[in-house]
Amino acid sequence: MLDLSVLNKEQREAVETLEGPLLILAGAGSGKTRVLTYRIANLIENGVYPGNILAITFTNKAAQEMKERIIQIVGDEARNIWISTFHSACVRILRQDIEKIGYNKDFVIYDTQDQEKIIKECLSELNIDEKAMPPKDVLSKIGSLKDDLIDAETYYSRYGMDFKTRNLANIYKMYQRKLKKSNALDFDDIIMLTVKLFKENEDVLNYYRRKFRYILVDEYQDTNRAQYEFVNILAKEHRNLCVVGDDDQCIYSWRHADIRNILEFEKDFPDVKVIKLEQNYRCTKKILDAANYVIQNNENRKHKRLWTQNELGENVRFYKAENGEDEALFIVKEIKRLVQEGYSLSDFAVLYRTNAMSRILEEAFVTSSVPYRVVGGLKFYDRKEIRDILAYLRVINNPLDNISLERIINVPRRGIGQATIDKVKEYANSRDISLYSALLEIDRIDGITKRAANAIEKFISQMNYFIVSKDRMTVSSLISEILDTTGYIKELLEDNTKESQDRIENLNEFKSAAVEFEEQNEDKSLAAFLERIALVSDQDQIENIDAVTLMTLHTAKGLEFNIVFIAAMEEGIFPHFSAKDDEDELEEERRLCYVGITRAKKKLYLTCAQQRMMYGRTMFNNVSSFIEEIPEHLIDDISPKRMSFNRVYNYDDYRAPSKTISTVNKINTTPVIQKPNLNKSANYDVGMLVKHKIFGVGKVVAVKEIAADKMITVEFDKAGVKNLLASTAPLEKI
Ligand code: ATP
Ligand code: MG
């Protein structure tokens, strides 16, 4: 029997309402996710067949956890429930029936880098200057059209009038054509095409309407138009739709989430039952109070005030550091102190507004040897070697995938030069066939050297072998086979640098991921493996290890930690400067702040710095206005007292046991901290190869004199472009 005594009265009412439209509108930490979990268990207890339930969560990880929890409560039959993100559910549907809208079932899912490559091709073929229409802007525009369910044809016929929109309409059309030719979808296609499939195929729609008799959606406040349509079209007849959300936590409008979906749910379903949960079970009274004070400054919201029976707790701690490094060191030092008091590393999260903020924090964690992990930012799957092996797998799975084929055709180097590739592409375009098909006809293409033709034949015969073997080999052994047969590993071994060793290690880790996948999934096919990788989100990458978690405020959604630091609480950073003159954006920033504060169970720290390096300049930002929205009686200011600018800093406190000597210089009344063991006098020149303690190997692309220092811009192999200060960055020439 389901034990409902772990729920309060309102939660229980929600769990026991099994039929009809149900809206659970509730604040942070009030048990929304818990209610969804129990409601599913209760449906099953009341005889609903698990296969008739569709539950949508915001991340795959949340889906996994919810599923495990339900299995614990009602047993193994719960395995048949569909609990997943919108994207995973839609991909699963498309795998079955996408042929009905003209794609084939082995489609791949392109990521941003692939997308940009195609957009660039379109711009060049249409003779449009990239400066006039930057590929990133074009993609974001196309993404928002797709989220609004406006396909290329509709856009063209509706808006293709003036010059600029006509250009965009042409690009959009060509982009879709190219995707289709590669049998590829982009991320935003997934939901748009599922809705299209439903709308154009009544039998498919009816099948899923009958199948998903009960639909539940978590974090409903962050759904966009396409997701809304997907849910509504399925639920229209039986109306067994339960959505939970918090209008105060809508933080994805920049990804076209539409807060109206939750605010107007009552209009869509006039007979809806609305349940409000007002008791928070997560935070201390003081933390919750702070959150309430901040969010009440938003006008565009449904009024609610959360309360809690939890302990009063401690005041929010506010720390204003001299500069960014100092702030980071304070955070690390405080974590070390609390760990000595008995907390474990996984109790801590450090949250920040943008990914770029993680660098300075990471340096402090590295120098003081405190284990940490960064969630998001540079993703494992974005590394070059991983993208290479993935490109192989994608071509093997779907030889129409031109973008991936182009990536690997000469990786490892096998003597197929750009001139040859261009000729093959031209041939393919003129005959409207895929690149792979063109390679099969290499002897018919003019102007290919004998040597290149031989190399292509060898490559194609290897690929053909993989393609015919993929169904009788496990994914992990296929990976090994590719890495060996193509000489990929051999090239790395011969290179024999620290970097190539790293790459080999990453490839091994990738193989382990494949083995893990084979152990955990019933569908062990290559297609299923690729699909899973295409759909991982930042939060999905959190593993259960004992380390401090660093991530953006957006990624922290739905999670909770005993102790939370929100760093860089400064005007212009958070709230972000883009919200400066825009009341709606400012409200969204404030909701983000509310999300951040309510992640904390026991202790909350808000930190900032008096000055910090940003975009190559020293900035003096004001303290975030959000901090001023928290009344003084809830805040303890624990910032160091500034006696004079000559104040001596003792950084030994912050460091691992090593007894290094710290010194302080005074330049223009601005203290600059010299870290030991760093090469301040080093001269960096453009083009020089350097190695950074955290970011690895990179090339200097610019050097700029600033004050008494130098700003070096380095393009790192793995971490992308970073601006670093010559005096403090842990950088070495190599
Ligand atoms: P968010 O808005 O951040 O997504 P939420 O409303 O989904 O939060 P949950 O994550 O479900 O809230 O719950 C917050 C915390 O409170 C969890 O640790 C959960 O286990 C606990 N909790 C929820 N309801 C109860 C209850 N009735 N009794 C005890 N603990 C509860
Ligand atoms: Mg939740």
TrEMBL record:
GO terms for biological process: DNA replication; recombinational repair; response to radiation. PROSITE patterns: UVRD_HELICASE_ATP_BIND, UVRD_HELICASE_CTER. It holds the Pfam family UvrD-helicase. Residues 5-284 form the UvrD-like helicase ATP-binding domain. It catalyses: ATP + H2O = ADP + phosphate + H(+); Couples ATP hydrolysis with the unwinding of duplex DNA by translocating in the 3'-5' direction. ATP binds at residues 26-33. One of its GO terms (cellular component) is DNA helicase complex. Keywords: ATP-binding, DNA-binding, Helicase, Hydrolase, Isomerase, Nucleotide-binding. It is an enzyme of class 5 (isomerase). Residues 285-558 form the UvrD-like helicase C-terminal domain. Its EC number is 5.6.2.4. Belongs to the helicase family. UvrD subfamily. This is ATP-dependent DNA helicase.
